[in-house]
Amino acid sequence: LLFPRQGFKAVSKFQPLSTYQEPLADGYQLLPFRFTALNEREYVLTNQASEFVVLGRPTLEALVRHKLPAADKLYNDLKAKHFLIDRDSSVALDLLSLKVRTKLQRLAEFTGLHIFVVSLRC
Amino acid sequence: MSVETAERALALVFRSPSRAIKIEFQGGEPLLNFSLIRFVVERAVAINLVERRDLQFVIATNLALIDGEILKFCKEHGIFISTSLDGPLDLHNANRPRLGKDSYQRAIEGISKVRDTLGRDHVSALMTTTKLSLGRVRDIVDEYIAQGFRGIFLRPMSPYGFAVRTKWFKAYNVDEWLEFYFAGLDYILEINRSGYAFTEFYAATILAKMLTPFEPGFVDLRSPSGIGIGAIIYNYDGDVYASDESRMLAEMGDKTFRVGNVHRDRYEDIMLSDALLGPIEESFAASVPMCTDCAFEPFCGADPVFHYATQGDFVGRKPLSAFCGRNMAIFRRLITLMRKDEEVRRVFVQWANSRC
Question: What residues in B contact A120, CB-CB < 8 Å?
Fold first, then answer.
C-alpha cells in the first residue's frame, strides 16, 4: 500500500502566502543579458541561451535598478527565462548553463554536409 | 571529378565524427556526370556498412536530364532531389535562359516524375530572388502552392559567381529585398490563417532559435560559422573549400577559402589549416565588434565569406553589412508579429518545431 504512508498526514496544509514571498524580500540578482530597442516604447532582452522577453522602458529601468517588484506580472517570466535569480531559485544557473550547452551541442557533431562538385558543365 | 578524386574525398567524408552524414551532388549540372554519382553513392554505402552513420544523399539538379535509369537508382538508395523553381513560367524562364525556352516546363515535369517514383517528400525546390522577382512575391508563393509544396525559402541574392558577373547582386539593395520578404511573409501568414499550412523556411530557422531549446545549425546563420565544420566542399579538381560560397568566390579568381586538396592534404591538415580556423575564429559573433553588444546575437550567425566577398575582411563593418541589416530587420519583424497576434504566434511555434 503506497498511500497513506506512516508518518505522512493524509491531508497536508498549504504554507501561508508569506512563505512564497519571503525569498523575494532580499531582492534579486541580474544574470547576463543584452537589450535593444524593438520600437519607440519597447525593448527586447536576450540571454546566452537565446531566451528573449520584451519589456516596456519603465519595466526595463526598474529591472536593472533592482526595483522590479516580485508581484510584477513579468517577474516570474524573467525568472523562468533566467534573466534574474532570487533566493528561491538556486537551480537557475545550472539550468542556464544546461541550455547553453544544448544550443552548442551541434558543434561536437562537426561536419555533417559534404558537397561534391562532380561537374562544372551546365 | 575523377574516380580517384572522389575516392580520396570519400575517405575525408568519413573522417568527420558526425553521426549524420549528408552527401550532396552539385555542379554545374551534376547529372552530366551521373556515372560518378553512381560510383560515389555505391562506394559510400559500402563504406557505411562498417561506419554505420545516418547516411543521406541529395542531388541538386535542374531536372532537365532526369530519366528512368537515374530515377531507378535514386529510388534504390533513397536519394533526395533538390531543384530550382524561381516562380511562375515567365519569371523562371527569364532567370534561367535555355535554348528551347523550356526551363520551367522541364522543372515542372521533372518534379512530377520524381514525385511519382520517389515520393512527394523526396523532392524540394529552392528559389533565387532576382530583380525580376521583386514585386512578384505573391505569384512566386502561389506557384509553390500550385506545385504542391508546403513551404518556400525566400532567399536573398548572393554576392557570388553568376550573380556578381551579371550585376544582379547590385541590382537591388537590402531595403528592396526586405520589402519583398516581408510582403511574402505577410502573404504566407494570410494563407496559414485561411487554413493551409505553409512554411517560410528562413523564418522557421530563426524561430527555432527563438522558441526552442535547440540550434537548427543552418550553415549560413550560426556562430561559430559553419564553414568547414558544418559543411565542406570537394571541388571537381580535388580542391577543398570551406563552403559553397567559398567555391563560387574561387571561380571568380579568389582562393582565400581553399582549405586544402584531397590528393595532397590529410584530414588534420585541412581541418586545422589557417585558411579555415582563421575566418572561423575572427568572425565568431560573440566576440566581434558590435555583435558582442547586440541583443540579437543569439539568433544570428557569423558569415566570414559574405563579409570577405563584400568588404574584404572576415568580420566586416556591421553598419555597412547587408547581412546584418537584413537579419536585424527580420528579427525585429518576427518578434513584433508574434507579439501582436496570438494566431501568428501559434503558427510560428509550429514552424519553429518543424525544423528541429
Answer: 27-28, 236
